[in-house]
Amino acid sequence: MSYSIGVDIGGTKIAAVILDERGAIVHRSKVNSITNDKEVMFQQVVTCIHGMIEEAEIPLYKVGGMGVGVPGKVDREEGLAVYQNNLPWDNFPIVARLQEMFPISKISIENDVYMAAYAEWEQAMLQKESTFVYITISTGIACSIIHNGIFLRGKGFAGEMGMYPIRNIFGDDSSLEQVASGPAIERIARQMLGKQIQSTHDFFQVYQKGDLNAKRIMISIVDAIAQGMYIVISLLDPHLIVLGGGVINHNPILLDLVKSELRKRLIPEQEGAEERIQLSQLKDDSGVIGAGLIGSC
């Protein structure tokens, strides 16, 4: 049996998995990111992968490939982590460096949202002639588009829907990411609800208790996400939209709220588009599974 390795590198943690030939996880590992130095951060990636391989007791000659998901802009041809706003890398040659540490014939790099999108697209088993959109709502907000089985990349920075400008209900000009990402929710909720808010989890708990200010914040979040999704629907009219990322994976009540708000915006020709939106099936594993699948291609 041959295996593949998937690695998902983020500003908070590094996760890695070993997949078997069926794409099932047979072993996993996770370590904290250390983002104050590029070499220390790289060593954390090595530690995560090396420790997992040792624990799994799988010889490297049985590993056919490795996929590495990195946030921000990457250069797939040169194997570079070009720019990440939450990592200390600038044109960092991560593929070449990993090949020095792990004698694996093929190591691929890809944007982390694209990795997650690929896994969810495979899971959905759509007809090849279809348009699929994966949207992550997490530390940041971004999307990835797979059309007729191929990623739509533009010139290399496509999918940054978190930058989309909106006017939120408080009358401020903001970007989608500044209103509805995890850090934005925490910041706004702390301003309006006080020190009791230490995380998005705290905010959703206060909201579910019926706090009026929490309800106002939720209206702003839902309105912002609906604005962004309406742009996606109007431009692409996709066959399926999958929502993932930590904010919505851990707070699935957002789905029905967003669908309800979105329904108000749809014209008759778009009727029913909201029913083509669903939650991630792979949840927090979508990034590492996608990385492993792409690594095995």
Automatic annotation (TrEMBL):
InterPro entries: ATPase_NBD (IPR043129), ROK (IPR000600). Keywords: Kinase, Transferase. One of its GO terms (molecular function) is kinase activity. It comes from the Bacteria. Belongs to the ROK (NagC/XylR) family. This is Glucokinase. It comes from Virgibacillus massiliensis.
